[in-house]
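Chain A, query sequence.
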Amino acid sequence: MVFRHSPDEPVLVREATQNDAKAIGEVHAEAWRVAHRDLFESHWLRRFTDERRRRWKSVMASRDFVRDTLLVAERGDRLVAFVYFGPVDYGVREGEIFDLYAHPTAWGSGVAWTLMDNTWELLVDARYRRIHLWTITGANRARHFYESFGFTQTTRTREVDFGDGRPVLEVEYLRSTR
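Chain A, predicted structure.
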């Protein structure tokens, strides 16, 4: 367990447990709902947020989950952010941050920075050489956050269809651990 202090109150960063699945889903759904409200039609956004609200119990029960890490950040008695990361097949000793979300009520509070700082320490300790992540091009808040943490946009892009038949463009970010 790692405690970091923010201007408001301490943040506890710890490994997630199965008991956190519902709260992780709520953070994921609300972050998606607010951050992407201008990127998807409202009925699709509702569907996508509902999927994120439900998905974490099955993600945490999957066989692949064993190789990955899921950290949560708590402020007081409330889970307010999470990060999900692990190894990827891009090359030797490379990792990827699959998901990093903070509840909108925690935006701007330093919680995401504290969580990413703890994550970075684990990634460096695990001797990953480079860390990848992908984000939607229209997710400007997320993109600014990643850039402020030292990630650089690469030239790689991909189209992702979340289920509405209208693919959105994602861009890759990369940061060396050295």
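Residues 1-6 have pLDDT under 50 and may be disordered. The first strand starts at residue 2 and ends at 4.
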